[in-house]
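Thread amino acids onto this structure.
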C-alpha cells in the first residue's frame, strides 16, 4: 500500500549512487530464461568486486548480521485481467519461495509498466530473494551467480525508488539489498532516508544496525538494536544481532 509522504526532503538517489559516468540499461527483452539475470549487467553503474560483496573485514570474525525480510507491495486495480492474473501467479510463486517464477512474472509486467514502482519493487524483491538463496547455498560455484542477482535486484529497486520516492517500503527493500551484498555505506544512507521520512520500524532500525556492523560502528549498531527491542520487543533477528555484538 502507498505510504504517506512527509515534509522531509526526498532522498537524493543520484548522490547516493555517485559513481563514474556509465549508462544504466534495464533489459526487458522477451528471450530471457527464468535462471537468467533480469537486468542487463554490461553497463551497471556500480560493478561488483570482491571487496564490495559479502562481509568486509570488520565483521568477518563476528558473523553476518541478520536482516528482516523484504516486503512485497500490492498492485493497483488499474491493471487488466490478464496482468492481474500474472501478478497473482507471481505472488503465489513468492509464497512458495519459487523465486525464478516470481521474477519472470514480475519481469513480464515490468516490460509493460517500467515506471510502476510497485511492480519494480516486487521484481527486485524476487531477484533479491533468489540472490539470498544462492548466497546461502554451500556450492561455491553459485557465488558469482548470487553477486549478479544482488546487482540486478539493486538496479530494479533503485528504479522503483526513482519512480516513487514516497514509497518507503521500496527504500527498506533497497537498503536490505545493499546491506545483503556488502554495500554497507550506501545501505546506511538508504536506511537513514527511510527513518527521516517514516516512523521507525523494527526492520529499518535493524537494517541500519546491520549497516553499522558492516562499517565497524558497533556502538551505534548496539544503540539501534536496543532501541528496536525497547520499541518492538524481543524479535529473534534483533536478539541475534545483539548477540553478535556481545563481549566474548
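Threaded sequence (248 positions):
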Amino acid at each position: 500500500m502507498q505510504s504517506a509522504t512527509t515534509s522531509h526532503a526526498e532522498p537524493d538517489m543520484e548522490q547516493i549512487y555517485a559513481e563514474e559516468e556509465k549508462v544504466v540499461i534495464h533489459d526487458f527483452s522477451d528471450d530471457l530464461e527464468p535462471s537468467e539475470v533480469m537486468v542487463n549487467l554490461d553497463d551497471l553503474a556500480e560493478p561488483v568486486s570482491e571487496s564490495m560483496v559479502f562481509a568486509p573485514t570488520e565483521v568477518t570474525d563476528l558473523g553476518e548480521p541478520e536482516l528482516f525480510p523484504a516486503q512485497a507491495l500490492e498492485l493497483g486495480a488499474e491493471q487488466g485481467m490478464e496482468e492481474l492474473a500474472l501478478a497473482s501467479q507471481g505472488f503465489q510463486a513468492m509464497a512458495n519461495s519459487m523465486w525464478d517464477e516470481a521474477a519472470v512474472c514480475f519481469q513480464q509486467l515490468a516490460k509493460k509498466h517500467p515506471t510502476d514502482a510497485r511492480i519494480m519493487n516486487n521484481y527486485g524483491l524476487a531477484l533479491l530473494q533468489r540472490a539470498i538463496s544462492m548466497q546461502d547455498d554451500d556450492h561455491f560455484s553459485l557465488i558469482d551467480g548470487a553477486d549478479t542477482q544482488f546487482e540486478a535486484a539493486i538496479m530494479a529497486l533503485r528504479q522503483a525508488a526513482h519512480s516513487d520516492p514516497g514509497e518507503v517500503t521500496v527504500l527498506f527493500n533497497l537498503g536490505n539489498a545493499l546491506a545483503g551484498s556488502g554495500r554497507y555505506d550506501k545501505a546506511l544512507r538508504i536506511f537513514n532516508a527511510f527513518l527521516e521520512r517514516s516512523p521507525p520500524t523494527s526492520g529499518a532500525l535493524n537494517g541500519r544496525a546491520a549497516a553499522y556492523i558492516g562499517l565497524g560502528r558497533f556502538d551505534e549498531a548496539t544503540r539501534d538494536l536496543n532501541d528496536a527491542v525497547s520499541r518492538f520487543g524481543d524479535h529473534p533477528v534483533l536478539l541475534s544481532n545483539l548477540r553478535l555484538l556481545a563481549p566474548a
